[in-house]
Design brief:
By secondary structure, the protein is mainly beta. It has five helices and 19 strands. The longest helix is centred in the first third of the chain and has 13 residues. It is globular, with a radius of gyration of 19 Å.
Length: 298
């Protein structure tokens, strides 16, 4: 069973994906997916039971719009940088004077939650704001239990499940603003998320492989076990003195093969078709669409 959020007949509902064709709706009185996550194991078991009973309302994937599973954020999107050493090394000398020594601990940053789009939505590309749009396929950890200073050996207890994201980045904005990453990774409507959350105990996450394709060409490929800092260590380090909340999401870093590190560089452009996939976690399929992000909205 996988959990997610869909739009069906004009309604936004939490849903359980039971097979490749569809699944059942979670009763609306459970709230949104963040409510369910925060409810803990008892609520999750009730949701599971209600989804599998014969009278549960069913849906076909062909009749619904699959949305980003998390629709309500209590804070920025949490992210990890340089969590595959081959990715760290591939960019050495290509950071335009902003190189740093190899880190001894995980590198964290955040993105504005307004980046989030659905698994098949178009990515908003504004070439006037940036000329260097890059891709970063990533595994996402969904925090399932609020906690602070979480010991590494108990970190798995605080994981609800996993999904995918593409941390699309604007390299020239990163350089323009002193090498910090928030500005160059926070343009609206640029990060596909989803498609469904695979529950923690339903997948052997370290065996999962992640891939990224650009216009049908494989550009990134790695396994979770290749990470510089394992997921449990990320949670322990990030939560040290900092409360992580149920429903938070943590991007865990991208492997090598990014466009900026290639010779010559490969940057995204309008019309490009991108696919982020991982076994057991599904696919994100998106097209880059020319968009005016400079227009003021109140």
């Amino acid at each position: 069973m996988k959990l997610g959020t869909i739009r069906i007949d004009g309604r936004v509902r939490v849903a359980c994906l039971l097979n490749e064709h569809g699944g059942t709706l979670v009763p609306a009185y459970y709230g949104d997916l963040v409510d369910i996550i925060a409810g803990g194991q008892t609520i999750l078991e009730m949701v599971r039971s209600s989804a599998l009973v014969g009278e549960a309302e069913q849906f076909n994937l062909t009749d619904v719009k699959v949305l980003a599973p998390i629709q309500r954020f209590s804070r920025d999107v949490l992210c990890t940088g340089w969590n595959y050493w081959d990715h760290f090394y591939e960019s050495e000398g290509k950071r335009e004077g902003q190189d740093v020594p190899k880190p001894d601990a995980p590198t964290f940053f955040t993105k504005a939650p307004t980046v989030t789009i659905s698994p098949d939505d178009d990515v908003a590309l504004d070439a006037r704001l940036s000329q260097k749009w890059d891709y970063e396929a990533e595994i996402v950890v969904v925090i399932g239990k609020t906690g602070r200073s979480i010991p590494k050996e108990r970190a798995h207890e605080h994981i609800f499940g996993y999904c995918l994201a593409n941390d699309i980045s604007q390299r020239d904005l990163q350089r323009r603003h002193g090498g910090q990453w928030f500005r160059g990774k926070s343009l609206d409507a640029t990060m596909p998320l989803g498609p469904w959350i695979t529950l923690r105990d339903d997948i052997a996450i370290n065996d999962v492989g992640i891939e990224f394709e650009l216009n049908g060409k494989l550009m990134q490929k790695a396994k979770v076990s290749d990470m510089a800092f394992p997921i449990e260590e990320l949670i322990a380090e990030l939560s040290l003195g900092l409360t992580l909340y149920a429903g938070d999401i943590l991007l865990t870093g991208t492997p090598s093969g990014i466009g900026n590190a290639r010779t010559p560089p490969v940057f995204l452009k309008a019309g490009d078709r991108i696919v982020t996939r991982a076994n057991g976690l599904g696919e994100l399929r998106n097209t880059l669409r020319a968009t005016d992000l400079s227009t003021y909205t109140a």
